[in-house]
Amino acid sequence: MTVKQIVAECVQKMGLDNFLDNQTYTSDEQKLVARLVFNVNVVYREIVSAYLPLVDTANVNVVGGELAFSSLQNVRILYPIRLVAGDNEINFKSYATKIKCDYSGAAKLTYAYLPSTDFVLTDTITDARITSSVLASGVLAEYYFQNKVFDLAKNFDSEFREEIARLKYKGRSMFLKERRW
Fold first, then answer.
1. In whole angstroms, what is the distance from residue 155 CA to residue 141 CA?
2. How far apart are CA 156 and CA 143, in angstroms?
3. Alpha helix stretches (DSSP H) within 109-149
């Protein structure tokens, strides 16, 4: 899905004519597109930081029991998940800029991260876990909240939260433990 498709879906849900296929935009249309693209970035960062994290693994070298996050290139780490050396999982303590552990040497670090660049109108979002309707609902919730249209913001936000919960827990059974009252 492209950012342009998401913005077009937002424009359609707003009840406006789809002007995105035009060659040029008026100044109001340019402002609207810029705000919606900004909100696409806000919502995507919220999704990957709170609901569906982007996870990667890197080969690292732990020196003196410390690993600085700055040693990883072009990565904005949210939080480390696992540190493994060979077949052994290493316990560590995470700080804002580094990891401390009782190990030195080569290891593999699994971590959640944020994308390094923002999306523009012509970019493609390749994350197959997220649907365009989820992003459009989140974008419109942010947009209407910023414009102080709280009723519409609340409606789109609740729709966004319901859809993202379905995506997050997709395929998993949710059972509550039986309790005695």
1. 8
2. 10
3. 132-146
Residue with tokens 């700055």: 70
Half-sphere exposure of 10 (CA within 13 A, CB side): 33
| Structure confidence at residue 151 as a pLDDT band (50, 70, 90) | very high
The candidate with the shortest Cα–Cα distance to 5, out of 14, 23, 18, is 18
Q: What is the largest CA-CA distance in the chain?
A: 65
- CB distance 14 to 6 below 8 Å: no
Give the residue among 135, 140, 130, 126 at the shortest CA–CA distance from 32.
Answer: 140
Q: Pick from 78, 46, 28: which is nearest to 142 by CA?
A: 46
- Rounded Cα gap, residues 59 and 26, in angstroms: 49
Query: pTM of this prediction?
Result: 0.85
For residue 52, give the nearest of 142, 147, 131 by alpha carbon.
131
**Contact of 131 with 163, CB cutoff 8 Å:** yes
